């Protein structure tokens, strides 16, 4: 059910004059870099609903249009009451005037729903029965056999469970749908349907903001995609693309999930998918990587972050011709061209873009902070003597703030630098790495690794 | 013999339509005929009866051997004589012919005698040999229409004897030896097949053995039907020629063409196909006349298919090509054929068509809605037409006007291809026909082949012309619902996508390559590069056939040129490297045969094949331009790299382009370099200037290369190049002179290289960030400060290199181990395998161009080295 693609993509209308929204975001920039139309085909209706709701708050597009779009979006679903409300809002009429088809549809939906409930009543009842549950083993087939033998459960009943779950989801009762789909998965042996149920459950978890559950589902789907033999590589690519888009929800809303998802995105299969079918994801990737910088404490975490950052720069470079926005341009300016002025300019734009993006709104503060870090890091690496005034300007800070910032930077990153207060400069000391040091670094792990290898060979 | 003719003549109506000129000509001919028929009256001798027309073939065959042979030869004499109008020649020729005929007759007798002898001793090997010889002689003497009686007698007897022997053999206790039995078997089969042709005669002979042989040589009169009035006047003349000829030669087979006899003639011609001594031009003439007679679509289709294939038969051998007039005629006929097929959708030419067995029957008339299949293959006609044009273009000197004129025929060919594509599309849409096989795909591929290397403007012209042609030609609009004007920018894309979907063979690969080439030609570098990389062709192109490999090379080079035009220097260099670095550019691109390699000797066979593969001149990619682009790119990459490497022995080895380095060394060896003469001189002098920091001189030299003018917007290209030279000049300058500076102001550098200060700062920052130079920027003074004491001694360099190698070794060992024990890796190993630069590179489709190439064609140095390392590490690990 989740595999439906939504065709109705709202188009931006250019007739609203340039202006600034309530939060001071330039409408032009926001529209230019709005990814919603690109993302939408890869999401489910119910997920898109949240994007549209966000857009209505943003006031970037005319409200009436968005309302109409929301209405079009939800019309095929079974959330009849809400659709009716929307209709009323659009047409500005009272309850009395609601067209008959709405009522008819509501009637029909209710009937269907009740029918489904009746159909599955037995099996749901069974699943709630602790005696039955206690007889379950880890083997699916055995469980199914047990139910068939002892309680007269048929395959059709189990399939009805899936439909029931779909119905619940379509009505908007996500928590219920999640439970039903969970039970279905326990019982069903049809791998295609289980896969469907997993997607459905992921959607439910996302919509009920249960991030731990969502992460579990993402892992499950990832495994299915990797292991399941696909008829064509395109189908596999498409599923990965969906997964990537869906994973954006937990990525920016659940801190604990971030590392796992980033790792997932940077795994060769997924980074390829991003590069081939949805390069716009690079924006989210970039923000996620940059904001997670300097968070990890352990050296292992920093190593991973450094590698990810390197990969990110590589991907940005490769895809620059295909996709760019202020965020990727910022990275390109900073790490490919070393053009600090440009980077600073792009950072300003990037902030606007971030604040008008559904996923990135929460990260914009951190992003700017971390991006400053990045700039100053690169700056310090290249320069020997820096004018504090100039640096502060580059970081969009006042001179005093800049000085504080630099002091903090020196303390945090343990750069070998000193401030010459009289001249208002920072003097960086770049001691050349001695050759001996280099050789030692390079050969450090060699002995251990060789030993491990010998041990493994000897085994 | 004379009697019969007289007899016939008396019966028949007299011919009334013969004209005066013919009359006199015929008389001349008559005088030449001294043996027989001389005294017969002209009009009488040319008599014929209508009813005899049917039998004429059979009766012909009854003719006495010698006479027939003579008649046949006379026919050709006459033809020649008629052209030359020289009686003396005629006489001489005739005498020779007569001798020949007699000789052949004797030979036939001799063969039969030998066969008889062999029969007595039951020696089937000899019989088999002689039988072959006999058949050849007969075939030579009489081209399929009449055979000597002697021969009939011989083969009939032989058949009887053979049957007897076989019967005996079955019951015999002692079998004959193996060779003999084998010969018997083979003759049994051949005889059966052979005798089937002469069934009537054999029957006659069987019925009355003695009588048949004694019967005087009946002179068969060929009959000419009174011509239908519809036949054009020239037709009449032609017929008169033949008729008169038939008179004099007595028993000669006159080619009398009527609508009814079309299939008979066709059959004769088809049977003679491939045999020696078949006069193809004669056959073509016959068929052209038949074509004019043909009215029903079935007749037309049959004649046209036979005619076109005979035209193709005219040229054989690999290196000869079809004469232009024949080609044009074939093209016109193919067009007619397609038109007939378009107008009559009930008739279809299909490879699966049922062979027509009996031409005597009335041609079938398809019921409405029914589809009748005629065997044949339009796609092979189109293929052949295309190939012949290519062949002739390969052979014509490209600098003559002839070449240009011939090239003009491509438009006509293209129209045919488009037309047949539409035809196949129609067939494919009709489920009664049961599919068109790969014909449609092949036709589409042909079409792509003619489009992909052309610029848009040319495609537009050619598409428009073919559209106009098709729109005017196809009378039945209803058969062409698909006909529409193609947008020149999309046509290749459209055709290729069709093949991607519908084809799985090599055609798909070729379509992909053509598509990439086309995109590269239209400056879509990224799109074409992505397609090239995602197709994964680099990995398996070595297994493809040679022409596809050539296409791949062409594509690669074109992508490289595209990158060059877009100012992507390193991409361009890596694309061009493989082909240009090989030193055998011409062979790789099939644009000429390069100098023979010292180590491989090419057999004439291979040489011929190679010649066959050559591309016609108009498809060539300019080699000089290629070289200029490649060398310029190499210069822009190599000179700073060489300056950066300085004198350090380790880094000196990292060569980007071996070819460039070798040539540069060669150039430097010149004691007195003169002013640059060719492209190469320009580039290398520019390279030297760049290395010395004289960017302006270098720029001037590069801009003086004339070949750039071949490229569209040469001016912007030159600007791009000088921009690059400025940047690389700056880098080279810093690399070269860093040791002599303590600090250098950015303003000064900007002034020297005429670059904006911001750009200089960015360039320098980049160099610092990538650890290319040991320096740092001073923001206050806007200077670059070089760090001292970072120079490493030779020992230190070596130590660094050693430690690098050691860690590389460990990495390799781990990877080898991991491969061997896919699953059983311990935690420690897993961790190390995910280190940066570890495995998994192969999975990324967007890696550099050079990745994944075998060492087969290119230099492949990297792979070779890798192989050594693996070996080496293997030894090490076994030791440890």
From TrEMBL, chain A:
InterPro entries: eIF3e (IPR016650), eIF3e_N (IPR019010), PCI_dom (IPR000717), WH_DNA-bd_sf (IPR036390). Residues 1-20 are annotated as: Disordered. Residues 262-433 form the PCI domain. It comes from the Eukaryota. Keywords: Cytoplasm, Initiation factor, Protein biosynthesis. SUPFAM superfamilies: Winged helix' DNA-binding domain (SSF46785). Its main location: cytoplasm. CDD domains: eIF3E (cd21378). GO terms for molecular function: translation initiation factor activity. One of its GO terms (cellular component) is eukaryotic 43S preinitiation complex. Pfam families: eIF3_N, EIF3E_C, PCI. Signal peptide: none annotated. It is found in: Cytoplasm. One of its GO terms (biological process) is formation of cytoplasmic translation initiation complex. Component of the eukaryotic translation initiation factor 3 (eIF-3) complex. Belongs to the eIF-3 subunit E family. PANTHER family: EUKARYOTIC TRANSLATION INITIATION FACTOR 3 SUBUNIT E. Component of the eukaryotic translation initiation factor 3 (eIF-3) complex, which is involved in protein synthesis of a specialized repertoire of mRNAs and, together with other initiation factors, stimulates binding of mRNA and methionyl-tRNAi to the 40S ribosome. The eIF-3 complex specifically targets and initiates translation of a subset of mRNAs involved in cell proliferation. This is Eukaryotic translation initiation factor 3 subunit E.
UniProtKB/TrEMBL annotation, chain B:
Residues 820-835, 870-880 have a biased composition (Polar residues). Residues 617-791 form the PCI domain. Gene3D superfamilies: Winged helix-like DNA-binding domain superfamily/Winged helix DNA-binding domain. Residues 18-64 have a biased composition (Acidic residues). Its main location: cytoplasm. Residues 1-91, 820-880 are annotated as: Disordered. One of its GO terms (biological process) is formation of cytoplasmic translation initiation complex. Keywords: Coiled coil, Cytoplasm, Initiation factor, Protein biosynthesis. GO terms for molecular function: RNA binding; translation initiation factor activity; translation initiation factor binding. SUPFAM superfamilies: Winged helix' DNA-binding domain (SSF46785). InterPro entries: EIF3C (IPR027516), EIF3C_N_dom (IPR008905), EIF3CL_C (IPR058999), PCI_dom (IPR000717), WH-like_DNA-bd_sf (IPR036388), WH_DNA-bd_sf (IPR036390). It is found in: Cytoplasm. Residues 181-215 form a coiled coil. The keyword Protein biosynthesis applies. GO terms for cellular component: eukaryotic 43S preinitiation complex; eukaryotic 48S preinitiation complex; eukaryotic translation initiation factor 3 complex. Component of the eukaryotic translation initiation factor 3 (eIF-3) complex, which is involved in protein synthesis of a specialized repertoire of mRNAs and, together with other initiation factors, stimulates binding of mRNA and methionyl-tRNAi to the 40S ribosome. The eIF-3 complex specifically targets and initiates translation of a subset of mRNAs involved in cell proliferation. HAMAP family: eIF3c. Belongs to the eIF-3 subunit C family. Component of the eukaryotic translation initiation factor 3 (eIF-3) complex. This is Eukaryotic translation initiation factor 3 subunit C. It comes from Orbilia brochopaga. The gene is NIP1.
């Amino acid at each position: 059910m989740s595999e439906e693609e939504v065709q109705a993509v709202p188009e931006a209308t250019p007739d609203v004059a340039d202006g600034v929204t309530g939060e001071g975001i330039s409408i032009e920039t926001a529209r230019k870099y709005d990814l919603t139309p690109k993302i939408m085909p890869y999401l489910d209706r119910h997920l898109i609903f949240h994007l549209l709701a966000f857009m209505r708050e943003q006031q970037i597009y005319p409200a009436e249009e968005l309302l109409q779009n929301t209405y079009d979006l939800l019309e095929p679903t079974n959330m009849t009451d809400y659709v009716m409300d929307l209709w009323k809002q659009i047409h500005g009429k009272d309850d009395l005037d609601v067209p008959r088809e709405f009522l008819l549809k509501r009637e029909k939906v209710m009937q269907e729903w009740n029918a489904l409930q009746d159909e599955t009543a037995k099996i749901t009842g069974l699943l709630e029965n602790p005696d039955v549950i206690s007889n379950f083993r880890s083997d699916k087939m055995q469980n199914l056999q047990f139910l068939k033998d002892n309680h007269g459960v048929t395959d059709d009943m189990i399939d009805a469970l899936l439909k029931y779950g779909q119905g619940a989801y379509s009505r908007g009762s996500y928590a219920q749908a999640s439970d039903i789909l969970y039970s279905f998965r326990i019982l069903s042996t049809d791998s295609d349907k289980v896969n469907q149920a997993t997607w459905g459950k992921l959607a439910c978890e996302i919509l009920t903001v249960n991030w731990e559950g969502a992460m579990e589902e993402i892992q499950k789907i990832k495994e299915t995609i990797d292991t399941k033999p696909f008829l064509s590589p395109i189908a596999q690519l498409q599923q990965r693309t969906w997964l990537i888009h869906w994973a954006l929800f937990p990525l920016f809303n659940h801190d604990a999930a971030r590392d796992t998802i980033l790792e997932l995105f940077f795994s060769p299969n997924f980074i390829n998918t991003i590069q081939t079918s949805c390069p716009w994801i690079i924006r989210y990737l970039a923000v996620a990587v940059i904001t997670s910088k300097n968070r990890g404490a352990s050296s292992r975490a920093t190593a991973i972050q450094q590698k990810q950052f390197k990969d990110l720069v590589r991907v940005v470079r490769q895809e620059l011709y295909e996709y760019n926005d202020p965020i990727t341009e910022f990275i390109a300016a900073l790490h490919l061209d070393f053009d600090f002025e440009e980077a600073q300019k792009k950072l300003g734009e990037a902030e606007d873009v971030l604040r008008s993006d559904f996923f990135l709104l929460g990260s914009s503060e951190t992003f700017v902070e971390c991006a400053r870090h990045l700039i100053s890091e690169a700056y310090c690496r290249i320069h020997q003597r820096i004018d504090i005034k100039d640096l502060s300007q580059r970081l969009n800070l006042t001179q005093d703030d800049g000085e504080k910032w630099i002091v903090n930077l020196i303390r945090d990153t343990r750069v070998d630098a000193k401030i010459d207060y009289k001249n208002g400069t920072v003097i960086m000391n770049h001691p050349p790495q001695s050759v001996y040091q280099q050789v030692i670094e390079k050969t450090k792990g060699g002995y251990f690794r060789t030993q491990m290898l010998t041990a493994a060979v000897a085994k | 013999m004379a009697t019969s003719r007289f007899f016939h003549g008396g019966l028949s109506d007299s011919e009334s339509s013969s004209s005066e000129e013919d009359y006199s000509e015929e008389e001349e001919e008559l005088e030449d005929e001294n043996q027989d028929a001389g005294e017969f009256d002209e009009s009488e001798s040319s008599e014929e009866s209508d009813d005899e027309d049917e039998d004429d073939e059979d009766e012909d065959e009854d003719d006495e051997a010698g006479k027939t042979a003579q008649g046949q030869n006379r026919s050709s004499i006459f033809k020649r004589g008629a052209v030359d109008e020289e009686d003396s020649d005629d006489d001489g020729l005739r005498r020779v012919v007569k001798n020949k005929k007699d000789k052949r007759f004797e030979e036939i007798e001799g063969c039969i005698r030998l066969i008889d002898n062999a029969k007595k001793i039951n020696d089937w090997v000899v019989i088999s040999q002689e039988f072959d010889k006999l058949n050849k002689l007969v075939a030579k003497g009489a081209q399929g229409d009449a055979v000597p009686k002697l021969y009939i007698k011989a083969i009939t007897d032989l058949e009887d004897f053979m049957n007897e022997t076989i019967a005996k053999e079955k019951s015999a206790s002692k079998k004959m030896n193996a060779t003999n039995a084998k010969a018997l078997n083979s003759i049994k089969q051949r005889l059966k097949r052979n005798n089937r042709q002469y069934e009537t005669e054999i029957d006659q002979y069987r019925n009355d053995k003695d009588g048949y042989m004694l019967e005087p040589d009946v002179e068969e009169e060929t009959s000419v039907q009174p011509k239908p009035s519809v036949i054009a006047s020239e037709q009449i003349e032609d017929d008169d020629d033949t008729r008169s000829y038939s008179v004099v030669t007595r028993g000669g087979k006159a080619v009398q063409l009527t609508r009814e006899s079309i299939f008979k003639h066709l059959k004769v011609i088809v049977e003679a196909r491939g045999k020696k001594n078949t006069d193809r031009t004669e056959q073509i003439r016959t068929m052209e006349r038949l074509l004019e007679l043909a009215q029903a679509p079935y007749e037309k289709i049959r004649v046209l298919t036979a005619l076109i294939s005979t035209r193709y038969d005219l040229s054989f051998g690999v290196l000869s090509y079809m004469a232009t007039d024949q080609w044009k005629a074939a093209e016109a006929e193919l067009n007619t054929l397609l038109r007939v097929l378009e107008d009559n959708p009930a008739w279809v030419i299909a490879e699966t068509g049922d062979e027509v067995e009996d031409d005597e029957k009335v041609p079938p008339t398809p019921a409405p809605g029914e589809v009748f299949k005629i065997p044949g293959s339009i796609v092979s006609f189109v293929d052949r037409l295309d190939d012949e044009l290519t062949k002739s273009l390969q052979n014509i000197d490209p600098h003559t006007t002839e070449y240009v004129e011939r090239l003009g025929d491509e438009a006509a060919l293209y129209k045919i291809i488009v037309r047949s594509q539409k035809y196949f599309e129609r067939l494919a849409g009709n489920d009664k026909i049961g599919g068109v096989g790969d014909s449609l795909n092949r036709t589409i591929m042909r079409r792509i082949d003619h489009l992909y290397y052309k610029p848009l403007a040319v495609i537009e012209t050619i598409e428009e012309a073919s559209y106009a042609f098709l729109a005017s030609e196809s009378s039945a609009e209803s058969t062409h619902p698909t006909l529409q004007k193609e947008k020149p920018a999309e046509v290749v894309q459209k055709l290729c996508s069709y093949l991607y979907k519908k084809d799985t063979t090599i055609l798909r690969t070729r379509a992909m390559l053509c598509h990439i080439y086309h995109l590269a030609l239209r400056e879509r570098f990224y799109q074409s590069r992505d397609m090239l990389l995602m197709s994964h062709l680099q990995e398996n192109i070595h297994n493809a056939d040679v022409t596809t490999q050539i296409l791949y090379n062409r594509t690669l080079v074109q992508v490289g040129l595209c990158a060059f035009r877009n100012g992507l220097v390193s991409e361009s260099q890596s694309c061009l490297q493989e082909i240009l670095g090989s030193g055998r550019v011409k062979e790789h691109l099939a644009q000429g045969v390069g100098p023979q390699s010292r180590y491989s000797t090419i057999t004439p066979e291979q040489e011929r094949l190679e010649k066959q593969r050559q591309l016609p001149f108009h498809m060539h990619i300019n080699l000089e331009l290629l070289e200029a682009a490649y060398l310029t790119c190499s210069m822009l990459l190599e000179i700073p790299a060489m300056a950066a490497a300085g004198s350090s022995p380790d880094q000196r080895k990292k060569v980007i382009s071996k070819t460039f380095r070798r040539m540069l060394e060669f150039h430097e060896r010149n004691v007195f370099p003169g002013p640059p003469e060719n492209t190469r001189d320009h580039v290398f002098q520019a390279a030297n200037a760049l290395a010395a920091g004289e960017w302006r001189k270098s720029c001037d030299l590069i801009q003086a290369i004339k070949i750039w003018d071949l490229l569209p917007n040469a001016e912007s290209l030159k600007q791009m190049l000088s921009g690059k030279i400025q940047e690389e000049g700056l880098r080279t300058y810093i690399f070269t002179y860093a040791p002599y500076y303590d600090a250098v102001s950015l303003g000064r550098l900007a002034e020297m290289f005429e670059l904006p200060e911001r750009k200089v700062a960015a360039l320098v920052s980049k160099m610092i960030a990538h650890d290319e130079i040991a320096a740092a920027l001073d923001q206050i003074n806007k200077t670059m400060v070089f760090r001292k004491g970072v120079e490493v001694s030779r020992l230190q360099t070596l130590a660094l290199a050693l430690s690098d190698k050691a860690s590389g070794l460990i990495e390799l060992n781990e990877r080898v181990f991991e491969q061997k024990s896919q699953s059983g890796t311990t935690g420690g190993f897993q961790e190390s395998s995910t280190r940066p630069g570890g495995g998994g590179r192969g999975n990324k489709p967007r890696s550099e161009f050079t990745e994944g190439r075998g060492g087969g064609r290119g230099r492949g140095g990297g792979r070779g080295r890798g192989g050594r390392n693996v070996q080496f590490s293997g030894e090490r690990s076994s030791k440890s």
